[in-house]
Amino acid sequence: MKISLYAGVASLALTAGMAHSEQLTVFGPWLGPDQENVEKVLAGFAEASGHDVSYVGSDSFEQQIVVDVEAGSAPNIAIFPQPGLASDLASRGQLIPLKDGTADWIRENYAAGQSWVDLGTYGDAAGADNLYGFFYKVDVKSLVWYSPENFEDAGYDVPTSMEDLKALSAQIVADGETPWCIGLGSGGATGWPATDWVEDMMLRTQAPDVYDQWVANEISFDDPRVVAAIEEFGAFARNDDWVAGGAGAVASTDFRDSPKGLFSSPPQCYMHRQASFIPAFFPEGTSVGEDADFFYFPAYAEKDLGSPVLGAGTLWAITNENEAAHDLIAYLQTPEAHETWMALGGFLTPHKGVDSSVFSDPTLGKMNDILLGATTFRFDASDLMPGGVGAGSFWTGMVDYAGGKDAAEVAGEIQSSWDGLK
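RE: above sequence
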């Protein structure tokens, strides 16, 4: 049996006697339960293709894959948690372009398909662009968490536009309550939750190409459009009436503690913007879907920018070419490859052809509907920026801004730090 591409659609071609079994090594960042889950997906591929597949996971993947590639001992497939490192290796001629037709398949079969093509396309050693990365297993960040009981008791409806969200926030204040819980504390990483806010606001106030230019520093960090997005965050976080504890508490409140105000009696807040992982920090016994729920962090109706979604995900790339590696990329285009992990939990996909009833958890199915409704998907900007910015001055700058510093001044300091890395 072999896997082949016909008219851009991945299909299994049963060709008895024609299969050529190969060894296939896959290296990625997953250990523990996620390793068990990806191994089940790969077992399905091995059964379908006849290839002998092995997976190795590491919590130091980013460092080890560079060592392995430089030493000439790269795995056939590497699973990158962030596009930046894959782009670096592609620019050094150390990744293999995916087969012709793959980009067309992604455009046709992934929600916001062009976004996924763009995220996996990098320049090679000569500067020519090729598709190197296939995204599989995605996370969503554009979520607002709330207590359905609190909303029902107060008579509030879930907002469907940014205008409605701001109006609801103002109404909650008028009712003598506090709309938001926001916390930026995270030890040595304090400030990162604010970067997600700013990234979401960039996608809701500017076209996707402006976001891309910002990430690449083709426009400066203190460009008026970026400063305006920072101030959009400030409209929530620097408003004493809108945030639990007042604006002065935002930077000092640990992000893991900040959503707990949703569940106090009486509630300290009514909404909390955070990614899909945050229920892990809800009070013990909290049931998502009953005690807590979420809605899409909405876009401005008046700006006509569609339904952008901010998130992250892993991309699979070929670092040591053989036919089995291309076969695996083709297998990842089948609904089966996605539905296997969907049934196990902890998995979201932009694949429009999957059976959503397979999700082990209806909460994941609802999150996936947000992903499938995206007109634009963009990767977490701070993860794509140089470490000294995305995991450095951007974080600290947002703490300074939350503390009252001028947005343009903060943005200028972040840009200066970026210039210092060039």
